[in-house]
Structure formats: structure tokens, C-alpha cells
Amino acid sequence: MLLKKLVFDNYKTYYGHQDVDLYIPPEEREKGKNIILLGGLNGAGKTTILKAILYVLFGKRGISESEHKRLFSNVINNTFFEEGGRSCSVTLVLETDQKEEWELKVRWGFDYLKRLTHEERSILVRKPGIRQGKKVQIDNIEVYNRFIDKIIPYHSAPFFIFDGEEIKDIILRQNSSEMTEAIHKITGMQAYNQLLDDLDKMIRSLEQDLSRSVSKSKLSNINNELEKVEDEIQTLREKKETRSKELDELKSQIETVKNQRNNKLKNNSRSREELIKRQSSIDAKLQNMKTEFRNLFLNEGVNTILNSKVNTLKKQLRNEQALKNKRVIANASLTPYHDFINKLLSEPIDPPLNEQQLNQIKEIGEGIWMKDNDIKEFNQEAKELHDLSSNTFNYLTNLQSNGSEKYSTKLTEIDRLTNQLESLETELRNAPESVDISIENKQIDDLTKVLGEKEVRFKSTRRKLKKASESRTALTNQLTRLNDQGSDYEDVVNQLETVKKLYNVVSGYIEKMTELKANYIKEEFSNMLTKLFRKKDEFGKIEFDIRSYTVKLYSDQMQEISIQDRSAGEMQMISSALIWALTKASDLSLPMVIDTPLGRLDSFHRNHLINHYYKELSEQVIILSTDTEITKDYVDFMKEHSHKQYMLDYDEEKKYTVIRKGYFDLIKV
Which of 91, 432, 614, 663 has the highest CB neighbour count under 10 A? Predict the structure, then answer.
């Protein structure tokens, strides 16, 4: 993309209709003249140009509502407003890589109190070689944003259009998700990932097609799998029942030994007796709570689990009941017509009518009858899936469903009581003993260990049984859905295998390309930093981390240094080198718009940035600068490499800026 022209119509400090020709012909770019130079003192409108380009392209994105209201409450030129003007506009003309010319225009309207009343956007697209274009008014800003992002993604804007004095923010924000996303878009990595996503969607789609198309062998295989699963379920149920009995027996043995131990302890001390009483009380509460939870689940568990299904069924049944009522009403209204037409057509007709003609008369007559009697049509193809009695219908539609809060409360209480029991068990063990209960404690420990092992086996059996039951349900549903549509089965299989192979190839390509591109960024970053940086021996290493896409500094002891501790000039050089590397690795060819690029730099860094950076940075570099940035080397460089130069002259008396050719009277055209 190249910028061709920027047009102001009574926008901010630019009075009347003023434009800047930004286009650089190909032959000039080949000669190394890739720079458009705009100079002006502070307040002349340099930053206005940069922000106007950003707003025409990206609008309110990245701007809060309050900030937008503040920024655009006074964009109309004061002189023009006092003359009675009530609107202003900015137009940006650009050329795409397809040689299309896009004319993007934003127009603002104001009331007599200079309050913003509306904002309009439009796009005029001219095809190559055609003077007339098609103008489109933008009503949906999301559509407009997607349109613009095709040529310059929003998140990549900070790398192409920026204030030179704030360029350090690129480094300070480098670990943010927005920065990572921007780098991915600039370097083309997002497009690669999108390709993988598209291939993955194709695989999912083909797998769905495959599930709908079935071969005869697959039907047989599913039946065989279902038989195996049924056998497995039966075996697992028997194991579960056996292991459940073993667990109950072990729990009973542990309880018996605990009672024996507790009986000994009752005669030992009052403290132990109190602990045992508390233990017995809490244990009783725990058993009651478990019983309550079990009864609650047995009575209401099914309704809770099927809550969403029950609601869906209720809705379906009510829809079917409404359909049935409509059908009954319609049939009752058509009964007189059917009696009449049947009598009419039973009379002899000469010549006789065939069956098709008789049916046509019936259908046409029925339509006329329904229209004359205002009988509403209904969907004859709609079907009633359920044939229910009135009692069953009323039961199902009034069936109450419950939430899961009751269960959560009881489970929490069960956990609390269990923890109290465990704590009391520890207290009992640590209490001073005057009787020997070591035998009982060892028996409890041994039995508890065995209980734990058997509970693990029981849970494993239960999980396997649940999984097998789910497999049986899935296989049964699959058999129910399958039909005799297996003619395209082999084709779908072949397509799926091909796309999967392509996915693997592309995935490998992306992995290799990611590594190559990251290393390329690292190399370009290091090379440019070497050219720009004055303190070459201050750091042991300055590198671009290819894993995290971040810049890292290291001391001569190879310890990482905080970038935020560096000077503004140093961070500007580091940021410039990163922009250079990303631009060279990018799949995008975009113009660079830079405001005040040399303001914070010393003479050494200025000369290196001028001589080694801007002339190779992009095919179009638009520099907005003040008089404080001008040196002899700067002027000589601009004479050689700038295609056009403009001066922003602010008239103190008239209070507006005029754009003229020339540059601080040093470069004149």
C-alpha cells in the first residue's frame, strides 16, 4: 500500500481546501527517493497530519468514548466556523498492491454551539485504468474495519505510523498480548495459523460427513462392538457388586475394632471419653447426612440431571399440542367442503375425469374454500413425534426440575464432618495412654490400608463401567442414526486422508517457517542495532528472543538488564531496529509515517538513523519534523533522498496553517 494524497477541508488548523501530494512514482523510488518531507514549527499541525491518517484508517479503535469526545469536539476550523461553516472533512487517497485507488473520507457535522452532531464515512474505489469509481457510504463500522484490515491490520499500525518521541512504547509494551498479536500479523504468522485453522475445520467437516455416510462393514463392526460392550458391562457390574460387598465388610470390621478400642479408652480418662463421645456424635451426623444425600439423589437426582432435557421436551410437547389443535380446527372447518366435493364428484360427468383431474379439482376447491372462510393454513409436513394420553401429557409438561444447589450443600457438609472425624482420630491417637490400644490401632491401620486399596479398585471398576455404559449409549445412538446412505463413503475417506496429510505438511512447514522467520528477525535486528548504536561495548549482548518475540539486553556478565532503565534515546534506537527487522520480515509493504523522529537523539545517533535507516526502511517514508532536528547532514541527505518537501506555515494573525512547497527555506522546489 502507498499513500497518494491527504486532503483537508477546514479540518482543525487547516483552513479551506488544502491537500498534500504524497505519491512517489516507481521510477523515483528506484532512484532511492523514498522520502516525503513535511516540516513545521510546534503547533503548525504536524501531529494533526499523523492523527488524521490514523483516524481515517482506524476510526475509534483504541480510543475511549470520553477521549473521542474530547479529541473531536473542536476539529472544525475556527475561522471557517465563525464564517458560518458547520462541517469539515479529511480524505485519504491510497493505492493498493492491485493498483486500485481507494479514497477514504471522514466528514464531521456540528451545530451552532460547535458540538459534534454526526460523523460520516465513505469509500470510493477506482479500478486500475478507470477514472470513475463506486462510492459506498459506510453504515456498519465493523464491515469498514474488516475492509481496512485487509491492507493494514489495526494492531500493526504502531509499527508503521508513530510519533518518533514515543517509539520507545513499542519496547515497553513488548510483552503484551496486543504486541504479540501485532507481530504475528506483520510477519504473516497469523495467516499461517489461520490456514491451519481452516484445514482443521475441513477435517472436522469431513469427519462429520463421514459419520453421516456409512459402509456395510461399518454397520457390522458397530454391532460387533456393541456386543462386546454389553459383555464387558455385565462383567463389570458383577465385579462392582462383589467389591462393594468387600468394602462394606471392611468398613464393618474397622467399626468393630474402633468400638473395641473406644471401650478401652472410656475407662482411661475423661478427656478421651469426651473425644469418643464427640467422635460418635459426628459419625452419627455423617451417616445421617450420607443417608439424606442418598435419598435426595434417589428421589430427585434423575430430574436434576435431566433438567435441560426436560425443559426441551416440555417445549417440544407444547409445540406439538399447538400443532395438533391447529390441525383439528382446520379439519373441522373443512368438513363441510369435503362432504360437498365428495357428493359433487360422485355424480356422473361426461366425458369422465381422470384421477389427476379429480385431485386437482379437490385441491383447487379446498384452497378457495379456505380463503373464502378465512381458514388459516398450517404446515402439513410438520409431524407430531409423541403420541401421549392427556394424563401423560399433563404429567410431563408439569414435571418439576431441580437445580444442583441442594447436592452441593449436603456434599459440603459431608466433607466438613469427614474432616472433623479425621481430626478427632488424630487427637485420640495423640492423647496420653494408660491402656494398651496399640493392637487395635494397628488393626485399624491395616484394615484402613486394605480399605483404601479396595476403594481404588472399586472406583476404577465404577469408572470403567461408566465408560462402557457411555460407549454402549454412543454405539446405540450411532446405529439408530445410520441409514443406507453409504455410496459416498469411500470418497469421503479419501478426502479426509488427503486433508489430514496436507494438515501435517502445512504444520511442518509452519514450524520451519516460524523458526526461519524468527531467526531472520533476530539477524536483521542485530545488524541494524549495530549500525545505529553508539555504545557498542556497553552490553554483553542485545538480542531478539525468537520464542517470546521480545528484545532482551544483557550485561558483560551476561545478566539480563531492564530495558526500562535505559535512556529515551537508547530505547528509540532499539525500537527503531525492531521496527526495521519486523518490516523486512513482513508480508506487508506499507508506508511509514513518522512524527518528530530525531527530537530526543544526539548528533551521533541522528546521523546513523539518517544515513543507515530511512532510505532503506520502506518504499514510502513520510517524515514530520521540526526545525530543531535540522543539521547540515540532515539537509544533504534529504536533498538526495526526498522526492517532495512541504512546509507547514502557521499564520499567527489568521490563526490557520498553509501547506506550501519547500522546507524551512533550506530545501526549495
Answer: 663
